[in-house]
Amino acid sequence: MATKLKEPAATPEENLEELERNYRPFVRRDVYGTMGWEPLPAVEKVLLGLAIVTLVPIRLVVGIWLLVLYYFVCWFCTMFSDPNWAEEEQEDFAHMGGWRRVVVVQLGRFLSRVMLFNLGFYWISEYKVLQNDCRGLSRESERPGAIVSNHVSYLDILYHMSSSFPSFVAKRSVAKLPLVGLISKCLGCVYVQRESKSLKFKGVAGIVTGRIQQAHQNKYAPIMMLFPEGTTTNGDFLLPFKTGAFLAKVPVHPVILRYPYSRFSPAWDSISGIHHVFYLLCQFVNYMEVIYLPIYHPSEQEKEDPKLYANNVRKLMATEGNLKLSDLGLAEKRMYHAMLKDKYRLVMHLLCCTWFNTKLFVYSEYFLGLKFGQTIWHRGTEMISLIRFTQEEKKVLAMPMLNILIIFSN
Questions:
Q1: Could you tell me which residues come within 8 angstroms of residue 132 by beta carbon, excluding any fewer than 6 positions away?
Q2: Which of 203, 209, 201, 216 is nearest to 251 (CA)?
């Protein structure tokens, strides 16, 4: 007899609701819905159609022109200058001084703001929180070693370039990108391999700490800009902070970015890059709010405990920015994306069941998870492991292959 599941299968709507409850920092709430694939009302389709023939071509041409122009500015300014090699694959021009540095920085700030204007950010609301309004902050006036900001979108980088032109921590592959690679070197970016935990990775962490200390002590050194969450959210939450920005034991400057919206959300959460850029270009006006908190000076206890330092800055930013704290991180975001992609794939695209010699063989292109309450299939010859995850428990049921044939349907 066939083995029966004790729990009834959840509907697609229930699956999506449970996903959204458990991965709230990455859930999209705009009119385009999760992953930007939701059916649109007629009015929205008309607006998109008008934007495609008017806004999009102009913004594309202007955006490419701005990028190419700044690339040639960087190329000219670095033409007779040798790069700084901190270590292998850490090439930059952050040390460049004189008129070259002035041109690169000032024109970079101006063109970054023009690029934001081209993308619909015609005005940006900036607020500064007074020293007395923030609890636990020192009254000392001292140059911070780093700017720490919540991470909502790649647009965050353009804003910070326009406001302070800092050095960023970037993926190593960015240095090899056409046009953008040289610009990132002029910014003085520190390149990391995200998944690496080797000695080389520890060396990069040392470079970041050294840069932060140098920026703190030397007003002419480029300040470091770090997103301690390590990934983007929908802008309503603050993920746990990594300690990289706080190892140097120097003051940091917390900055909070928000993107109010009515139709399309500029947050880069669960939507693909192509969809995000397309809808961003189609939206006539976008909004950005920036909250500058006072420089945060660590106590002696925080200097000795980077985790405490990071956590206290995080709590302060959450309070002042009206953000919710979440314990999720990059790993959970990737899991959420994988489940969303599986949910929207065609039935049986990934799973092919065939009968051969009275045995059922299951072929899957890769790890398959269709819902939270999660159904995960492992390859096998004699049995299939069906693993169900809930918020409270994990159940593992082993079923003989000959007793069960499941066809997935959303």
A1: none
A2: 216
Any idea where the domains of the chain sit in the sequence?
12-17+335-403, 25-327
> Residue 187 and residue 105: Cα distance in Å, rounded?
8
The neighbour count for residue 270, using CB atoms within 10 Å, is: 22
Q: For residue 326, what is the DSSP state?
A: -
Strands (E), 32-121: 84-85, 91-92
What average pLDDT score do residues 110-135 get? 88
Q: Which pLDDT belongs to residue 14?
A: 55
Q: CA-CA distance, 348 to 358, in Å (whole number)?
A: 21
The pLDDT assigned to 338 comes to 82
Task: Round the CA-based radius of gyration of the chain to a whole number and report it.
Answer: 25
In the block, tokens 């390590």 appear at: 230
Q: How confident is the model over 158-163, as a mean pLDDT?
A: 96
Q: What share of the chain is helix, strand, coil (3-state, %, to 5)?
A: 40, 15, 40
> What pLDDT, on the 0 to 100 scale, is given for residue 197?
57
Closest CA to 26 of 247, 228, 232: 232
- Cα separation of 55 and 51, whole Å? 5
The residue that leads in pLDDT, 303 or 393, is 303
Closest by alpha carbon to 125, among 232, 260, 263? 260
Could you give the angle at which helices 98-118 and 55-78 cross, rounded to 10 degrees? 170
| Higher-scoring residue by pLDDT: 136, 88 | 88
Q: Is 180 exposed, middle or buried (0-12, 13-18, 19+ CB in 10 A)?
A: middle
Tell me the Ramachandran region of residue 36: left when phi exceeds 0, alpha when psi lies from -120 to 50, beta otherwise: left
What is the secondary structure of 177-206 as a DSSP string?
A: STTHHHHHHHHTPEEE-TT--SHHHHHHHH
Tokens found for residue 2: 């066939």
CB within 8 A of 403, min separation 6: which ones? 1, 2, 3
Three-class SS state of 291: strand
What distances in angstroms separate CA 188 from CA 108, 247, 296, one per listed residue? 13, 20, 24
pTM for the whole structure: 0.78
Gap between the Cα atoms of 255 and 252, Å rounded: 10
- pLDDT, one tens digit per residue, over 196-221 is 555 455 567 788 898 999 999 988 88
State which H helix or E strand residue 166 sits in. Answer: none
Query: What is d(CA 264, CA 283) in angstroms, rounded to the nearest whole number?
Result: 7
**Beta bridge partners of residue 397, listed in sequence order:** 386
Least confident of 168-172, 229-233, 356-360: 356-360
